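Fructose-bisphosphate aldolase, pasting as requested.
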Amino acid sequence: MTVATPERYAHMLDSARQGGYAYPAINVTSTQTLNAALQGFSEAESDGIIQVSVGSAAYLSGHVVNDRVAGSIAFARFAHEIIGHYPNITVALHTDHCAVQYLDEWVRPLLRYEADQVAHGEEPLFQSHMWDGSTIPIHQNLAIARELLAKSVKARTMLEIEIGAVGGEEDGQSAAINDSLYSTVADGKRVVRELGLGENGRYMAAFTFGNVHGAYKPGFVKLRPALLREIQEGTAASLPGFKGNKPFLLVFHGGSGSRLEEIAEAVSYGVVKMNIDTDTQYAFTRAIAGHMFKNYNQVLKVDGEMGDKKLYDPRSWGREAEDAMSRRVVEACKQLGSAGKALR
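Structure tokens follow.
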């Protein structure tokens, strides 16, 4: 398989919800970290999701160019080519955490680009885009979500929304860590009233249950996974004729510092996508740091010496970094239950 078609992506997410597992959604910042993520998915025999944040999209164009749309398109085209060399997995491409101030310079142009692709009989470059309306009132959040959902239908992509605020900081977006980090059953019901439940276009929903972006020790983050069950069941009960108790495809943001049992509980309530960023960043960079410390005299031209080209060649420490990050991706697949479940 290669990059997921829209139909294949929907099948992936529905299979995860029905099967009680979730896909790691790995944030990447370069072709190296993309390759590391793909290596991990392949070794775990897991389908998965690769995503770029607003900062990563700009960085992928080169820090001087700093163009989010150009970076996203270039990255996606590279990914489409490389993913085809991993025949045992299906991977979806996603843009992550687009806040209101970035819509006109990132996700809206991408949706227009993809709608044009579809109009010319092509598949869209990305399979889903996230609208992060967590910093604005919910009525404005959902009004923009309705607009983007209609555009997503034309682009044959899926929309991801965030209801509530995630604490901590990511790519310049920050929120306090306090009692405001918890969505409600009323929020779930309102989302369905405003967006429907698939008839107006399919979407994923990141309801917040104490999630925090960043690096924290286990126990610091006060998650309430049972809140997801309440939102799912409370919303389902309000829908006449709805069968089942998981109306939403849920997304888990800010998972660093979460206990394994909390992750497993959240997945059991319908989480199908969990964002992984901080931990894979560290795994990648820690391997590079280890290489540099171990080979200090060879990677630096100390006291007029020449060093060792084989050891300061970026490919030498790059391979170590990719292997280390791929191992963390395999670990995530096992924790979320997607390992060994690649769709055939």
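Note for the archive: Residues 191 and 271 are 17 Å apart (CA to CA).
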